[in-house]
Amino acid sequence: MLKLYAMFLTLIFLVELVAAIVGFVFRHEIKNSFKNNYEETIKQYNSTGDYRSDAVDKIQNTLHCCGVTDYRDWKDTNYYLEKGFPKSCCKLENCSPQRDADKVNNELIGIFLAYCLSRAITNNQYEIV
């Protein structure tokens, strides 16, 4: 029974090792895929409660950022042409930024990726025990 446990533990370790190596090797492809999907979601953004738009709002509110790289990413969207920046880009509570770039957050996507990484590490830390 102890040998079976050791075998399964070794198998799990090897699978985790392979997953880490694959993640490291393909990190640029993963980053580019995430960036392209996020840019596409911003271009299709609307305020009607679409799940993609809700995800964009949640990301921007949580990370206090606006757009993929900065607020200028919104200027190429139909939403910006009609209504300006979304409210999730606001620096302050209860603002309506419309087209005023001084009222929007302008952080980088690196903040989001760092947040995701730290959250994944924190969540998985308790699963190891």
TrEMBL record:
The chain crosses the membrane at residues 6-26. Pfam families: Tetraspanin. It is found in: Membrane. InterPro entries: Tetraspanin/Peripherin (IPR018499), Tetraspanin_EC2_sf (IPR008952). SUPFAM superfamilies: Tetraspanin (SSF48652). Its main location: membrane. Belongs to the tetraspanin (TM4SF) family. PANTHER family: TETRASPANIN (PTHR19282), TETRASPANIN-6 (PTHR19282:SF169). This is Tetraspanin-6. It comes from Panthera leo (Lion). The lineage of its organism: Eukaryota, Metazoa, Chordata, Craniata, Vertebrata.
